[in-house]
Amino acid sequence: MKNHKGRTAKGKEKLRLHPRNPHRARYNFPLLADSCPELAPFVKTNQYGNQTIDFADPNAVKALNKALLNHFYGVTFWDIPEGYLCPPIPGRADYIHYLADLLADSNGGHIPRGKQVRVLDVGTGANCVYPIVATKEYGWHLVGSDVNPIAIGAASAILQANASLKKRIQLRQQTDESHIFQGVWENDDYFDLTLCNPPFHASEATMASENRRKWRGLKGDDTAEVTLNFGGQSKELWCDGGEVGFLLRMIDESVPVGQRCLWFTSLVARKDNLAPLQQRLQQVGAKQVRIIEMAQGQKISRFIAWSFFDNAEQQAWCQLRWKS
Question: What InterPro entries does the record tag this protein with (predicted)?
Fold first, then answer.
């Protein structure tokens, strides 16, 4: 129950997705099941009389993703290999919409649309969700990179099966996992934006420990076998140095290409990681740094954005690339 201030009885305020996010309303499961009959067997009525699915069941979550991508984005085929990251679509869409606002801030308040806007998705994964949402919502041209050849192959199969995506999304494999931009950023590349959902664990052991904690919270059972409803391969979930180590390397690699990108961005899962990132950005000479918060349910997430251009230089960039 909510009080007059819109907070729950426990005092936690329900936070809303971005205003342009089409997933703000409660899931309409009958409508989604019509878009994807594969979802129908997983839909059930809970104790409150509402239709839902078991979000701890990876097969149910995967079927829901297929339905959402079909209904809202016109994706007729979408599949990922077993064990690969199956992300929640609403949160991923939120990042894209806030990125559109970031570009609009540099463009006199107008969101740039169309294939002239080029975006690099670092670690696009087998699911290819960020490029799908970005190109369907704003018509942008996406380049997705990943170190995993299986992920690249799965994402490529999605593109090949959806002609409208194939025209707007390009995939590149990162052959050296010690690098982020180097090796996929070609000599003639100019990007208006980069985005990333970085691995946030420092090791496989810490990842397993965190997963056990989350699973106990979900199932209330200390002895239950840990199963991730969202899946994920090791390189999607952990790397040496964890999230902050990965992003410090990204910042360092952004310097040589700093004059060939308007905004570099990445999600930051842990708020405590912001301070060392901001310090490094100051050291490398970033002219603008922003921390942008996003909300879903009762959870706050965020991304960091940095640019090597001041306001006047950003306006000149927009005039040159989007107004010509």
Answer: METTL16/RlmF, rRNA_lsu_MeTfrase_F, SAM-dependent_MTases_sf
